[in-house]
Amino acid sequence: MGNYAKTESTHYLQVALPTPLRRVFDYLPPKSGIDALSPGIRLKVPFGPRKLIGILIAITTKTDIPPCSLKHAEHVLDEQPIIPRDLLDLCRWVAHYYHHSLGETLSTAIPVALRQGKPVAQQTRKLWRLTYPAAEVPSNIARNAKLQLAAWQLLKQHLKGLHEPMLKSLGVSSQTLSALEKKGEVECILEELPTLHTMPQSILHEAPLTLNPEQAHVVQQIRQAAQQFQTFLLQGITGSGKTEVYLQLIEHTLKAGRQALVLIPEIGLTPQTLHRFEQRFAVPIVVIHSGLNDSERFLAWQKAIDYRAGIIIGTRSAVFTPLAKPGLIIIDEEHDASYKQQDSLRYSARDIAIYRARQTNIPIVLGSATPSLETIHNAKAHRYRHLRLNQRAGMAKPPSIELLNIRGETLQAGLSSALQQKITQHLEKDQQVLIFINRRGYAPTLLCHECGWAADCPDCDAHLTIHRQPAHLHCHHCDYQQPIPERCGRCNTASLFPVGAGTERIEDFLIGQFDPTPVIRIDRDSTRGKSRLQQLFKDIHQGEPAILVGTQMLAKGHHFPKVTLVAILDADSGLFSSDFRGLERLGQLITQVAGRAGRGTLAGEVVIQTHHPESPILNSLVTEGYDTFANTLLAEREKLGLPPYGYIGLFRVECKKHEEGEQLLLQLRELINQFLQHNNLNGPLGVTLLGPLPAPMEKRQNWYRWQMLVSSPARQPLHTAIAFAVHQLEGGNQMLVKLARKLRWSVDIDPQDM
Ligand code: ADP
Ligand code: ZN
Ligand code: ZN
Prior knowledge:
about 750 residues, GIY-YIG endonuclease, Rossmann fold, six-stranded parallel β-sheet, 23 helices, disordered N terminus, binds adenosine-5'-diphosphate
């Protein structure tokens, strides 16, 4: 075998394997040779004692490993690449940009079935027909073979043949068919599945709306860029008709024989958007989200790649769906934090989508009422075309917003008496009220009145949240649960009481206070089960007076025509967030939630409870709107060199022994600093390190957490430094490798939460 390698093989295979290691692995070609091999096929290879399925990345004539120690790839799983060239290139870029293993990146991008080595299903369907259309029942079908007779008669009535699923639905089994086939009476033809090329159907189910002048202008501007790369920021206030703009852009894309990829934040929360797509278009749509099982996901992927679906709608991970004929990408609510994956491969689907659009030379539209500061900054710098929709599409008027001072007020379940009066007023007019609080459960803390003890999670630095339905204490960070104790864990008196209010407690209070008005609670707990959320939405759409209480879930894309009062109970938590994005998020949330008020013909009112009604930034948001607010925040970020004016990466470490994480990061900092000095990358224009510092939640799920921030005014030096650091951790520096073995570390490029 050694001889074979030396004499015959001058080619080496670079294979990406599903391991965290940030490198490809070299193999000798399989014994069958390299003729049938091209990048994007799967190979089974030996890896230590195991066999792994990897993706062939390249065939080279060089290797850094002594060829005699290389092993042969064992099996070739595919004749054709299962990963198209552009997806492979995309994944290489993603792995490079996020400093992540290419093998794991590919694992994130492709369906599980493919990762596991399942064969790519045959893209054909079976058509059955009679071999000879005889007038009489052939003699080799016995008169008492009822099933065969029935099948024969059926096919005689359909001489062009019937597809197998149709036959099955008519009660003809595969056994019957193969019996007839053996007798030579019927034959089976394998037909290719129809693609959009061969489907003789119209594109639309229903006529599009007549666009208002603003919408028409936007559609025209984006259409002018058709078939070439350009990024558009579509900033349209809530209710301005962005979705209609998307629909009409997609219509043009489909008419040009191309596909559209649409990313939305969370499928379950935007059933209405989805419904509008399905109502409008007659072409097949695939929907890709976390609720799909493996085979559904695989099917969706195949429909997209075979040009059997015209529209691909999905959440974050759908950004990797390969398209046969890409024509347009739309990112709805582009500011939404759910586009950033928070573990493993910490990618931003929005940023990857922009890369894809550039790579395939097609337009991309980022839509939002409240664009992220990064996107606004890019639009100002003319990297993106900034388009606007400033008017509500229907009759609705923008709501009035009031900052309600609650300083020194006694609150009941978080509600001031002024707010309660307003609720009464709106209910009396037969309207609906929406109360927003970003905290589920009954109360965030169980406290002892005698000694001040609070019920904490044993595994996290966090209080346990009290839940009443069903009654228990729950850690929202690690899922730890326990019964509610009757006595204090420290002084053993029975003087425990709940502090603060979550959705359950507010619901309780409102039921008592506004009886008999129904109270509809919408949070993750009340919407478990598939159709639960849809049912709650249906109740709301009945339009009867009601109070809706909910979390973030209520802030997104819903259209509740009868809601005229929206209240935000706790704006102050956003005002004092430790995260530098806290204020940006608060402004987005207020603007989005306010967009839920008065979307019908009724005027809307928004009340924001705060202890700081004089806060300049809140006032600028309320009186001057999101643009001015965003400009103020951008000016602050610029002063501090924070994104989008600086670039950041975050090393995160989790360890079992508190000091180990700090030790590792101190060592790493030392090495990075030497590297920076050596390469003249230190100083204010180079790379700056901050940390190691304990993470905002220092202990979580029994792991101690540390972090170190790496920042730079330019992207390139930041990535150079991080690439160096990652290399040290992964084998470059033995001491570091030894420390790293005892703990978990990761690197997060463009982190969202820190
Ligand atoms: P956005 O996505 O910007 O929040 P939507 O697309 O949901 O706004 O539109 C808000 C409402 O206005 C929807 O009920 C939609 O059907 C309606 N609408 C949008 N465009 C038009 C139009 N050109 N003519 C009439 N109604 C429209
Ligand atoms: Zn106590
Ligand atoms: Zn916990």
